[in-house]
Amino acid sequence: MAPLQFQFQFRLPPLSSTSRSPHRVSCRSMAASPPPPTVRTVSIPFTHLKETHKDLSAKIQEGFGPQGLGIISVSDVPDFAFLRKKLLYLAPRLANLSEDTKRKIEDPDSRYSFGWSHGKETLESGKPDVFKGSFYANPIIDTPTTDAALLYQYPSFCRPNIWPTTSLPEIEAAFKDLGKLIFEVGLLLAHHCDQYVMRQGATNKTQGLQETLRRSRCHKGRLLYYFPRPLSECKEVTGSTSSWCGWHTDFGSLTGLTCGLFMRNSVEVPCPDSSAGLYVQTRNNEVVKVIYGEDELAYQIGETTEILYSGHLCATPHCVKAPSGENAAGVERCTFAMFMQPDWDERLKIPEKITRHGELIQPNQALTFGKYTEILNNKYYQQRTT
């Protein structure tokens, strides 16, 4: 099958000067201004989503369209609440394994895109991110390829999964079960995105989003664990909106998100700060706090979907604010993200005028998604020298 051609045709006004990179937009401080408004996600019941002939255009447009927040939640997904907690409760156990044990499940050759990763990414300040640890794996396929050339060319996609089979064996099944569920629900949502764009009269000459994702080998799950912080640090981050995760847009297609789970001393607790959570930058450069239920599954649009659909569906910059204040001391947070992405050999045609990554991506060129991602990853991990 010939590689799918993605064409950049952004119809949106350029983002503010904060959108200088795929992962980071400069940190905002809200200390001198009122707190941002809180907005509920557009929500679709799972029973509606699985009806392939149901017209969900209004919901898709409201959540993912040019005036939307780039996020939609899905409610009442069977088994989701159980699988979410089953995996998230394993995150502290993984993070608290011995350093020697965690080194055995690191993969430096993938630039820490498989297995355990801690302190390998950089924050907006340029310092290593030691606030959280991550465990990456492809929940759909353990070994995407055995081709040595591809393993070298696209290590962040092509290398095999690494599981802590002796130190925490139960995490493999829990990770795969949740990842596969988010993937299958995401495919249903992608179908309705395809139908919405077709109803807009913007037919695509190649396959739509659902088939692009269905045949991809590049999907990646990320289990995140935010380490508990002392009171002194909780007080320091009060004014920073992006204190836990910097401003960024996802450069995949769809990102499935679970609501964060907070714990203190291994006991689940409510979020200790109402201002903590997910923040999104709107088309009008307004910052809003976005909420959805803990038993809902949220999906955010990534850059390549915006490319595929010529701006009919749009990615938005977003970040995560840490809780602050006395009640936040000693609190840990666990969550999971499922990055649904095109295959590494899907081709992107970079236009003459680009609104993102201008310092990294040259206009008027063709790149595979794999190469595109490797270029962007160079900004956040040590570049390969061989």
Automatic annotation (TrEMBL):
Disordered: annotated span: 16-40
Classification via InterPro entries: IPNS-like_sf
Protein name: 2-oxoglutarate (2OG) and Fe(II)-dependent oxygenase superfamily protein
Organism of this sequence: Rhynchospora pubera
